[in-house]
């Protein structure tokens, strides 16, 4: 099948609508993007992969409040392959008092 005919189906969680990722995906030629509430992760790709996207600040806060571990257990137990994407730099967490080593 030629590359131009390959269609990637992505469901994006509706809470991600402010993300530049949504805009970028919607502009991609071979991506069919659907936005709806999904119960696990932020993006579901071809009903095979579930992606959880976090900024480094949210990652650190998720560690502090225990949310990260519950989310990762749910991601691991999913029938889909789980992926965690972290975005940002160490400067994003400087005001939280969480060291890079702790993360």
Overview of this protein structure:
The structure is a single chain. This protein is an alpha/beta fold and 103 residues long. It has a single domain (3-96), classed as Rossmann fold, CATH 3.40.50. Helix content is 28%, strand content 28%. The protein has three helices and five strands, in the order βαβββααβ. Strands 2-1-3-4-5 form a five-stranded mixed β-sheet. The model has no long low-confidence stretch (mean pLDDT 89).
Q: What are the key terms here?
A:
single chain, 103 residues, alpha/beta, Rossmann fold, five-stranded mixed β-sheet, 3 helices, 5 strands, 28% strand
Main sheet overview: 5 strands, mixed
| Coarse morphology | globular
List low-pLDDT spans: none
Strand order of the largest sheet: 2-1-3-4-5
Q: Proportion of β residues?
A: 25-35%
User: Structural class per helix/strand content?
Assistant: alpha/beta
Text of the CATH class: Alpha Beta
Q: Could you tell me how far the N terminus lies from the C terminus, measured between alpha carbons in angstroms?
A: 43 Å
Integer tally of domains: 1
What CATH architecture would you give?
Answer: 3-Layer(aba) Sandwich
- DSSP, total strands: 5
Mean pLDDT: 89
In which range does the helix fraction lie?
25-40%
Write down the secondary-structure element order.
Answer: EHEEEHHE
Indicate the radius of gyration in whole angstroms.
15 Å
CATH topology, by name, is Rossmann fold
Tally the helices: what do you get? 3
Specify the oligomeric state: single chain
